[in-house]
Amino acid sequence: MNKFGFESDNTTSKRVEKFIDKISFSYHINTFDFPIMHGHKDYWEFTVLTDGKLINVLNGEKIRVTEGQIFFSTTDDVHCLKKSGNEKLRYINIVAREQAVKRLAELFAPDFMDTLRKIKRTHTFPDEFIKQINEIIHQVLLLPDDESEKYNGLLCGAVMLIMQFLYRKSVDYIDISKQNEQPEWVKQLNKAMKAPEFLTYNVTDLCQLLHYSRMQLSRIFRNSFGTTPHKFLIEHKLRTF
Predict the structure, then answer these.
(1) E-strand stretches of 52-139
(2) Residue 72 in contact with residue 103, Cβ under 8 Å?
(3) Interval 99-121: pLDDT, tens
(4) Which of 12, 42, 60, 79 would you call most buried, defined as having the most Cβ atoms within 10 angstroms of its Cβ?
């Protein structure tokens, strides 16, 4: 099994070899599969499948990926990519040093890095996001070879877009692996948060939903989430828009 490092991996092209030590992000566009099982020593990989189908063999599990989906792998994972079917294949790989991923994750929540390691690795990506990723890559392609700072910044923006999407897909504040251990009111809250009308909720609505007084609600939110019900609602709305 190969264990590639960011500084010498084939994810970096000849174009960026001269300034690879100055950047935290890189990319490549592939039209072929990569059937060699490998891990990532010091970087994460975010992949957008724009055309065709793939089988991502991730940690021994075969995961079918179709056009319009995104998948990612961490330094904990080993995987390989196998083409599925005879359709034209195209996917964009954006790689990021683990420390860069950590810095971005902390902008969302202190424990988001841990959450990313636990949530499922494959998701259907909105068409508008795929369009934005393609536009960013096109901008990168037009950069002169000596524009390492702009190169790094644009790809950082692409990863930020992906992580924003993944954050919204993750369950707010709650460890999915402990779903069965959650109290009933937390399960009820999670269910309500998935509905569009939750964005209009105020603290009174939360009290009615969870059958707690304002004082009780404030206490359980402080104990469980380290914040007030009011701040919880505001932060949820900010993350959603």
Answers:
(1) 53-58, 61-66, 69-73, 78-83, 90-97, 122-124
(2) no
(3) 999 999 999 888 899 989 988 89
(4) 79
Tokens 């020593």 belong to: 41
User: pLDDT per residue over 160-184, tens digit each?
Assistant: 999 999 988 875 444 444 555 568 8
Residues 14 and 150: their CA atoms lie apart, in Å, by 17
**The pairing of beta strand 2-4 with beta strand 34-40:** parallel
Instruction: Name, in order, each residue with C-beta under 8 angstroms of 235's C-beta and a sequence gap of 6 or more.
Output: 227
Q: Which two tokens stand for residue 200?
A: 């209009």
Q: Which two tokens stand for residue 127?
A: 């068409």
CB distance 68 to 35 below 8 Å: no
> pTM to 2 decimals?
0.68
